[in-house]
Amino acid sequence: MTRQVEAHHYCGHQNEEMRQCLIYDSPEANARLIGLEYIVSENLFMTLPDEEKRLWHSHEYEVKSGLLVMPGIPGPIERRDLELVCKTYGKVYHFWQVDKGDSLPLGLPQLMMAFTRDGQVNNELVQGCGKRLGVDYEKERENREYMRGPEHGIHPLANGGGKGLKTVLREVDLPNDQPPSATRVFV
Questions:
Q1: CA diameter of the chain
Q2: pLDDT over 90 for what percent of the chain?
Q3: Fewest CB atoms less than 10 Å from the CB: which of 51, 53, 107, 109?
Q4: CB neighbour class for 160 (10 Å; exposed up to 12, middle 13-18, buried from 19)
Q5: What integer best gives the mean pLDDT of the chain?
Q6: Dihedral of alpha carbons 61, 65, 67, 69, sign
Q7: Global pTM?
Q8: How confident is the model at residue 121 (pLDDT cuts 50, 70, 90)?
Q9: Through-space distance between the first and last CA atoms of the chain, rounded to whole angstroms
Q10: Is-contact 48 2, C-beta < 8 A?
Q11: What are the two backbone dihedrals, phi and then psi, of residue 24, each rounded to the nearest 5 degrees?
């Protein structure tokens, strides 16, 4: 939660159970592609192995808090889609650490989590976005109070199981009976 960036999602529907989104750092023509998100229904999320569920975050807070917006989409249409998104889970990887000032996508992709409660978001970032996009986040929050999250509640293993996660890259040597091209693997 110490690193937060503005993220603009452009999503396509694989089917009713899954969306896939490209994430850019702005809505401008020169925006940088910084990551991707897979969004799945609660039903599909429940089929994942438990160790995988920790890598996914719920969308209920992002939607109900007003932080997730669809600029340029009429309110009734936006709310109808957000009613569905409020019940979903997402898995996000950022490839480009723009908040570090990197001019290229350097290092390992980073698994990102989402805001899950009040007090986590950088208010300056939110206010800046709201001003540029013409969004009143408090009004959005009020308009979405009626929305409901996952039917079975937020799964206890989602959102990192309530703990932070750290991705670690390590190099391992394989047994010598492997072909030369496969003697080193990153896991």
A1: 64
A2: 64
A3: 51
A4: middle
A5: 89
A6: positive
A7: 0.85
A8: confident
A9: 25
A10: no
A11: -115, 160
- What is the phi-psi region of residue 109: left when phi exceeds 0, alpha when psi lies from -120 to 50, beta otherwise? beta
Is residue 58 within 8 Å of 39, Cβ to Cβ? no
DSSP 140: H
| C-alpha to C-alpha distance for 20 and 95, rounded to whole angstroms | 16
Q: Are the C-beta atoms of residues 118 and 137 closer than 8 Å to each other?
A: no
Place of tokens 């010598």: 176
pLDDT at position 186: 53
- Joined together, the tokens standing for residue 3 give 């690193």
Q: Kindly report which listed range (21-25, 93-97, 138-142, 158-162) carries the lowest average pLDDT score.
A: 158-162
Helix (H) or strand (E) holding 8: strand 8-15
Classify residue 63 as left (phi > 0), alpha (psi -120 to 50) or beta: alpha
